[in-house]
Amino acid sequence: MGRWEPNPRERLMRAALDLFVEHGYDSTTVAEIAERAGLTKRTFFRHFADKREVLFSGQELLSRLLTDAIIGAPGSASPLDAIGAALEALSVAFGPERREWVRQRQSVVEAHTDLRERELLKSTTLTAAMADALRNRGVEDLVANLAAEIGSVAWRTAFARWVDPANEQGFAELARQTLDELRKATEALN
Q1: What is the Cα–Cα distance from 41 to 164, expressed in whole angstroms?
Q2: CA gap 14, 132 in Å, rounded
Q3: Which of 182, 179, 16 has the alpha carbon at shortest distance from 89?
Q4: Which domains are present in the chain?
Q5: What's the CA gap between 135 and 62, in Å, rounded?
Q6: What is the pLDDT of residue 188?
Q7: Secondary structure of 133-172 in the HEC alphabet?
Q8: Rounded to two decimals, what is the model's pTM?
Q9: Contacts of 82 (CB under 8 A, 6+ apart)
């Protein structure tokens, strides 16, 4: 071990992603991640339950951002307006400085069946958090569930657009555009 360096969590995340990209997710061990980060396995396990959690550790933050924005939306906001505020709030987690890391993370997730399943579970959990936050605003169950599902589709679509290397728009802008497109699509169904 060299001299102490700050941000062990970030160093572990960077080391893990680098190794996943270089050698594959399955071929990378916790010991290799810790070594690459200049830390011990024990330090790794202080920050993450396992190597999979390196890729999914931000879920609590996303859930909190969504929930806080929905609950904090103006009282006059419709359920979809509250969802829109929540999606825009996610731009805190998806700033331009995180884009390349997230793109690499997505390539690792998409290449591994178990990780894709975990990503779907994450999406389901975020959808449930949005529905719960809408219910806390007094929105009836059916409307809360439908708005959260629309929010989930908007979130996944905006996220996919944001990680696309051909797209350099900000996440908040993409979220607004996507939700507007979904609103127009549902109006066209009438």
Answers
A1: 34
A2: 33
A3: 179
A4: 8-54 (1.10.10.60), 58-188 (1.10.357.10)
A5: 18
A6: 82
A7: HHHHCCCCHHHHHHHHHHHHHHHHHHHHHHHCCCCCCCHH
A8: 0.87
A9: 69, 70, 73, 133, 134, 137, 147
